[in-house]
Amino acid sequence: MVEVRDVHYAIDGRPIFAGLNIRVRRGLITAVMGPSGTGKTTLLRLITGQLFADSGLVSVFGRDIASLSSSQIYAARRRMGMLFQNGALLTDIDVFDNVAFPVREHTDLPESVIRNLVLTKLEAVGLRGAAHLMPAELSGGMARRVALARAIVMDPEVLLYDEPFVGLDPISLGVILRLVKQMNQALGITSIVVSHDVQELATIADQSYLLSAGSVVASGTPQELARSDSETVHQFMTGSAEGPVKFHYPAPDYASQLLGADEG
Amino acid sequence: MSTRYRRGTLLEGVRRFGVTGIFLARLLAACVSALARPGLIVAQIFNAGGRSLIIIMLSGLFTGMVLGLLGQDVLQRFGAETALGQLAALALLKQLGPVLTALLFAGRAGTALTSEIGLMKATDQLTAMEVMAVDPMSYVAAPRFLGGVIAMPLLAAIFNVIGLLGAHLIGVGLLGIDRGTFWSQTQSAVGIHDVTEGIVKSVVFGAVISLIAVNEGYQCEPTAEGVGLATTRTVVASSVLTLLLDYVLTAAFL
Lengths: 264, 254
What we know:
The complex is a heterodimer. Chain A is α/β, with parallel strands linked by helices.
């Protein structure tokens, strides 16, 4: 469905990806995990054709995204949905119009059909009653659920989630988790979840990739990752500050800096 | 960000000019598809124009009243008080109307445009549109640009009318110039050439300010600080360019 093969990508000379390989199979939930700053969001931008790889292949729906014209990229994007970390709802229109937005832009459906369609999707995320609210009146978790309704309103084949679990209370988190699973099972949507919430992902992912330093350091089912004897994988799965992934930003010696040996 | 500061100011200026030029080309292309959705443009004419109406009318009134006082003061030194209507009408139509409206428009509508688009960028709304296969250039940028271009001449026209009434209020009401003389002087002095100059100026200023405002919002750093800086740049660049272009256009119409 989506394939990333030997992708190299650098921003301002700083390499983000060096030989990245990821394969997303139809109908599965694929998790892409990794510490902050490993380019997880950049990966989603490569898949949606907002950025292009310096070298290597990013193929979506079986076509090399770099070879498509901009109208073909737009056509491909209509078959995808994306859930943004903060929802990214349009702030000048209400919840109903936000969910209706892609439908009104891309189809000529009569208003009565749009109404039913939008209410169905809002019901699926439990927010049919909030249809008249403005985005500013929503909590973070509600905004994300509205954004999810908007992402699925065009019945996409692939759904991309950018850090869907960050900053949610336990109830909202549980709801979003169930929704992700439900979208996948009930609607057969291929899902790509980018996140660093290992425990949550482990309960829903069919296939996981762990990124570090620009490439995949481990892949497999969450259970396989948990049993891995790689130090990087072990550190990430258990959330330890000690290990191959440095938690501390490079700094002068701690003791000598405290003692004033270094004015910096 | 850091590389941007290291470059020279001149080079940075040239770069900005180039970026704005490319943006203008994309914007004009997007305007074609935006024209098919008049609803969006009308909403933006209201946003840019309707919401600026009160300050434009107030400013126009006081400008006209000051013109009345000044005209009386200066003209009576030549014994030509009766030419007040002529002076006020020409000053408003050719200079004060377009220029002052443009400066107010930059401060009221231009800043609102920049900060709105900047915030949409900072909250991923523009990216979200792109992912939903909706081009933000034709959905967000072009309607706002066209709305500004259309609203600005209308505002300048209202400014002129209210300004002339203000001059009339002072000249005829307070200083006792004959009403008939005031209007006949005005009517005979103003030619179609003067009106054209005013209209051309206000359209050009409207286009320049809207372009700057939309461009700054679109190019800004998507942070609170970046949006603030972009808003400031909109006011500064719009005001300076308005005055500079006013000189060029005035010279061209002589």
